[in-house]
Amino acid sequence: MHLSGKKILLGVTGGIAAYKSVELLRLLQRQGAEVRVAMTPAATKFVGSLTFASLSGCPVYLQDGVPEARPFSHIDFPRWADLFIVAPCTANTLGKMACGIADDPVSLCFMTSLGEKWIVPAMNTAMYLSPAVQENMERLRSFPGVRFVEAASGKLACGESGVGRFPEPEEIVQTLLAAEESQTVTSNGKRVLITGGRTEEPIDPVRYISNRSSGKTAAALARAFRDAGYLVTLVHGPMEAEIPSGITSVFTRSAREMHTEVLARFPESDAVIHCAAVADYRPKTAANEKIKDSRGALTLELEANPHIFRDTAANKKAGQVIIGFALETEAPEKHALEKLKKSGADLIVLNTPVESSGGFGKDSVSFALLAAGENAPPLHLGKKSELAAEILSFVNRKLGVKNA
Ligand SMILES: Cc1cc2nc3c(=O)[nH]c(=O)nc-3n(C[C@H](O)[C@H](O)[C@H](O)COP(=O)(O)O)c2cc1C
């Protein structure tokens, strides 16, 4: 099943076809997808949110509340999904999404989701053919990662006939399956799991411990492997760099969340590249309320986070390639070589945070690829895209994939 394990967020808006989204949800689940639902207030007048909550087994994201009481759940919720589909999509929601209005759960999820996005418009023919709707659809088609399941023609709920009908749920699923299939055909069949960005370890609901990683190297890696035909999954924390299209992105915030997501995907991956800047430590307890300023000294007790790199390297299967990053400020080669030896990884990418020569947030970096059983090359300055190309070439060699 090609949708097996796929995380799909179904956005339901206030059209007469909203009741058909119930069937769509069931069909997607039957294909092995995990489905969650977001609804506009108008949609809830057509179908009760309880129906979707019961069938999806998850609270529905509604106007008056987000399913998980977390400070950034309006961002986390859509980023959980690999794929966001708005079905049915009203003329009104089309207009909002095209113009950057995000005042309800569906248009907000559209703006913040990072995976592939599908739109299934459904409305009366006059609405569908109106210049505003046509223009909005045209605009949306030009957005990166946005695709349409086109409206069907035929008898409409209002009694008229014409274009604007909601396609049969089965047809929608077939379109998604065909799109998945075509991605698989162009791929080389190898799966690479990349971690990127930084983690955030909560101190209280508004503060956290983090670092300055921009995620640029991870984005460059994801692009390079995608373009080489790999099936790329990027498990990432917050990052400034744009997430490339055509990959599966999984958003995590803390090191523990990232650990869970990586370990779950690790067994099916041919190569794992640990590029994320994961916090080694987290506050032992995160306060439930914002810590008040008492002007006195404040001591934070820290405890160690799970070790994502070590836990994958230690369980490496034959033929799997594991790559770690080492950011060192002191005796860099010595420490990176120790890390390579101790972990059992295939490659350590040594990099140093020298401001003048690139590093955090810059496009270039000072790096050296230290491979097991090979002589260590000296540190040299290169673009992050060049670093990605060198890593790609190493993985290709290990997996027996021809360089493009
Ligand atoms: C009975 C009824 C059926 C409707 N069906 C549709 C429809 O199929 N498509 C559409 O774009 N709007 C339809 N509308 C209009 C929307 O409900 C209205 O524009 C609403 O504001 C959409 O809100 P939303 O986009 O936030 O869900 C219908 C309205 C009513 C009263």
Structure, described:
The chain is of the alpha/beta class. It folds into two domains: 7-185, Rossmann fold, CATH 3.40.50.1950; 188-399, Rossmann fold. It has 14 helices and 19 strands. A hairpin with an 8-residue loop joins β18 (364-371) and β19. α4 crosses α6 (105-112). The longest helix has 18 residues, at 169-186. It starts with 6 loop residues before the first strand and ends in a 5-residue tail after the last helix. The model has no long low-confidence stretch (mean pLDDT 90). Bound molecules: flavin mononucleotide (FMN).
What is the domain total for the residues? Answer: 2
Helix content: 25-40%
Give the CATH topology of the largest domain: Rossmann fold
- CA(first)-CA(last) distance: 29 Å
Indicate the proportion of strand residues.
15-25%
- Gross CATH architecture of the largest domain: 3-Layer(aba) Sandwich
| Tally of DSSP helical segments | 14
Keywords:
globular, alpha/beta, binds flavin mononucleotide, 5-stranded parallel sheet, 2 domains, 404 residues, single chain, Rossmann fold, 8-stranded mixed sheet
Brief account:
34% of the residues lie in helices and 23% in strands. The chain has 404 residues and is an alpha/beta fold. It has 2 domains: 7-185, Flavin prenyltransferase-like (Rossmann fold), CATH 3.40.50; 188-399, Rossmann fold (3-Layer(aba) Sandwich), CATH 3.40.50.
